[in-house]
Structure formats: structure tokens, C-alpha cells
Automatic annotation (TrEMBL):
Domain Exonuclease VII large subunit C-terminal: 125-347
Biological process per Gene Ontology, one example term: DNA catabolic process
Protein name in UniProt: Exodeoxyribonuclease 7 large subunit
Keyword Hydrolase among UniProt keywords: yes
CDD domains reported for this sequence: ExoVII_LU_OBF
Presence of the UniProt keyword Disulfide bond in the record: no
UniProt domain OB-fold nucleic acid binding: residue ranges: 10-100
Natural source organism: Stieleria varia
Amino acid sequence: MSDASGRAVSVSELTGHIKAVMEATFPPLWVAGEATDVAKPRSGHIYFTLKDDDAQIRAVIWRGVATRLPFDIENGQAILCYGQLEVYSVRGTYQLVVRKAQPQGIGTLQQAFLKLQNKLNAEGLFDADRKKPLPSHPKRIALVTSPSGAAVHDFLVAAQNRWVDAEILVIPAQVQGNTAAKTIVRAIAAAQRLRPAPDVVVVTRGGGSLEDLWCFNEEPVVRAVAQCTIPTVSAIGHEVDITLCDLAADLRALTPTDAATRVFPDKSSLRRRVDDLGQRLHRSIRQSIAQRQMQLHALSSRPIIRKPLEIIHLRSRHLDELDQRALRAMTSCMQRSEAKLATVAASLSGLSPLDTLSRGYSVTVDEQGRAITDAQVVQSGDVITTRLHQGSVRSRVLD
């Protein structure tokens, strides 16, 4: 046992030997592959994985080289990289330190992504006018994701901070692998069969490479999201990750935490709004009461309110005065009329034949009531009437 201990080397020594052999064996060389899992931290360095169908290698472009690149390295892009193999002793891994890079085209997955995107876009699955609005205060949320993933924790924590009066149902689904697409489609269908129906369906998972997220670019999943009768939110990967599921959903969230922020209202903002509305309501009520009090005070100062009988007495006195004036006017008018009538009667009396009859005269008329002024108009046997001052006499003409 002691002999073996004497012959053993430390991990650092072994890694140092590997580093020396590898870096001396492989001179700088060009490597072709597809860039995935691209990360661009604030330091300015670029970290990514260079892969093909059978293998992959980690690569790094230091800031000094990255600033001189004439293009941006994106996920799914096929590139040619010139650099030196380097062993990273701290982790015991090796990587390609890129000194030069040039675009080669797009990778196989990126080509498939663009082809399906163009097809579904032509069908209108990504049109903005077909997207449904999310309810402002959802009560029931269906979360389609892996129950053991970090996305569930992130979503629930953010939801707890935003809103507490909601029911969140986790519908299990695989979010990575060859069979993941089928489970996601089944989970979305199950969410639509729930009763009572959820207000929102959230499809989510954490970050990963293009391959890890590829199940959310498969056509059955994209169509299931687009055809879901419930408003959908897609929160796949990180901010830089964009899937076809994001384009088909009614709302795209950058992360699971952002999805909770988009779905649930901010309880602090709602409290402030309620408080503000309460204060505005109280101010409005106080202003209304003050206005009514001013109106009531103005009414109370009016005579009709202070002394309601006074105006009645004034009106009664005025009515009596008008009655007296009307009686005097009527009496005066009748007296004038009587005097005028007496004058006219006196005038008529002088012209009346009845006045002549009172002095002994008479008027004789024939049977038709016509006055007889000539004896030649009557004949023997005619009946005539003579009107006297008092009564009348009927006679028959003899001669």
C-alpha cells in the first residue's frame, strides 16, 4: 500500500501532463461546426459549444478577439473557427480558444426551424389578430412543464410575490428528449378538459441549448399551442431563446419568472390603486356633501323657507286687493252701462209707435201683419186687427 502511494501522482500533475501533451500535439487548426448554447456575458467574452452530429467541444472567444469579429455568433449558426486547443485545469476539461471565426451558413436544426417557421407563418398561425388577450385577474392557471424542473419553482415563487388568490395546477410533461413533444401535446389537451376551465395555460421550461429546447419547435406542439381554446403563455428558456412555440402562443414571456409577472397582477400596485380610488371616492363624497350643504344653506336663507306663511299672507292680501278692485271696476262699469242704456231707451221711446198709442192713436194691420195706411187695400169682409195702447180689436170690414 505504501509502495502504491509513492508511485501515485496528484490530479494537478496528471492534468498538467495532459495539458502539456495535448497543447504540444495539436497545433492551431480550423474546426467546422454548429454553434449552440451561445453565452455573451457582460465581460465581453463569448462562450459557446461547437458541435456536429456526433460530438461537441466547448469554445471560447476572448473579448479582444470578439470585438473584432465582423459578425454576431448566434445559436444554430454554422461557423469555421481557427484556434488552439487548451486544457482548462480547474475543471479538467478542454476547449478551443478561438482566434479567428467566419460564418459558414446555418446548421441543420436552424434550417429545420426556418422551414417550419415559414410554413406555419404562411398558414397564419403566428398572426397577431388571432391571439387572445389574457384575463386581468386569473383565478386558475394550468402550468404545463416538468414537475421536477426549476421552471416550476421560479414560476411559483414569482406568482406568490405577485398574487396569492389563484389556483395553480401543474400538468406534468417532458420538456426535453424525443418523446417530449407527445407529452406536451397531451398536457395541453388535458388542460382544456379541466373543469372549471383554467383562465390561462402556461407552457414553460428553463434554459438550455437549441437541442434541449427543440421539442418546442416541433410541429405538433406548435399547432397544439396555436389551437388551444384557452389563452396561452409560452416561457421557454432564457431571454435570448426563441422557439416556434413562443411565436404561436398568445403571449411570449422571456423566462418562467417573467411568465408569472405577465400572468398575475401586482398585488402591491393593486393595493395602491385601491387606496388611490378610495381616497378619490372619499374626496368626491366630501365635495358632494359640502356642495349640498352650501345649497341647503342658500335655500335656508330664502324667505320662502325662513317664513313660509309670510308669502302666503302677502299673496292673500294682494288677492283681496285685486278682488276689491275688480268689484269696484264691475260696479263702475255697470253704472256707466245703466246710464248709457237709459239714454238709449229714452231715445228709442221717442221713436217708438207704442208711445204714440199711449196718446190715443192706434195701428191697423191686415191678416199678414202689414200696416194699413190706405183704405183701398182692403175689401168688404176682410179681417183686420187694430192695436190700441191696451190690447187689440179684430174687425171685419163692412164698407
